[in-house]
Amino acid sequence: MNLDSISPNDVILTGDRTTGPLHLGHYVGSLRNRVLLQERCTQFLLLADAQALTDNMGNYLKVRDNVLQVALDYLAVGIDPSKSTIFIQSLVPELSELASYYLNLVTVARLERNPTIKDEIKQRGFERDIPAGFLTYPAAQAADITAFKATMVPVGADQVPMIEQTNEIVRRFNASVGQELLVETRAVVPEHGARLPGIDGKAKMSKSLGNALALSASPDEIRQAVKMMYTDPNHLRVEDPGQVKGNVVFSYLDAFDDDVAAVAELKKHYRHGGLGDSVLKSRLEDKLQALLEPIRRRREEYARDPAAVLAMLKEGTAKARQVAAVTLSEVKAAMGLNYY
Q1: Rounded to whole angstroms, what are the CA distances from 97 to 46, 140, 166, 216, 331?
Q2: Cα 214 to Cα 241: distance, rounded to the nearest angstrom
Q3: pLDDT for position 3
Q4: Is the model's pTM score more than 0.70?
Q5: What is the pLDDT of residues 186-227, one digit of tens each?
Q6: Which chain regions cross the lipid bilayer (predicted)?
Q7: How far apart are CA 287 and CA 283, in angstroms?
């Protein structure tokens, strides 16, 4: 992400589903950028518990409990609630009302053609048994974004179609009321494609796949995760040339090692032969231990006072409601729904 392109007038909306604590993939994809963004512009961070329920009905307690867990991760990485507004999605009912109006601006066929929705339906094996809330989530996400008139939304490359559909809804709404009321937004894809591979070499790090490393991981868990990381299965002897492409250890070094020149030299050495995987893994473990130790320590400190964290969320949610209520009032007035 080019932070030089961010101005104080920009409004950022981003967030995470509350289906589990956050991991290194989230850190690379968005968390570290959010810490920087809060110094440059207005930022709203959404704890997407309502979205989590679109495919977790029946797992209410998991979704609820992870609101606190994700909030702890936010605070632990350095997100400051005095600079970023952190709020709970389900406690801002204005978002649901906006979504109900936006659903009249999009067809079922268009929702089904959304590439992100199509892929996620396939991943979950829904076939035609698609929860209606899941299928219509693009309208709900449009409500989340437009309620705060966000000008930018940091997303992974696979989520760009969702932002495109938000802008379609914005244009259709504005055309229907004859004024430029809602603001189009821009998808911003962070470096590394906003996606870190799993430690097993699979394309996506995911807790459900068992290939993720939590931000709260202990030193032993970090050590074991690095030890298990996929490298080059054909690199059987130290003297053998090795493949860099698809090598998870190098993917992680690219993401977490600030010494770009040193990593480039390691890649050259590895391709030529004479560099063992253990050397690479030792370097990576040192980097991850140094990164996660202060995050884990701060998280433990915040976790000792959950009431204070919940109070912070209550305050942030109240602030978010005030902003969303203004947009909702404007939308209803433009539609002629201001009866008295």
Answers
A1: 17, 9, 16, 36, 10
A2: 32
A3: 67
A4: yes
A5: 998 866 544 788 998 876 787 777 889 999 999 999 999 999
A6: none
A7: 6
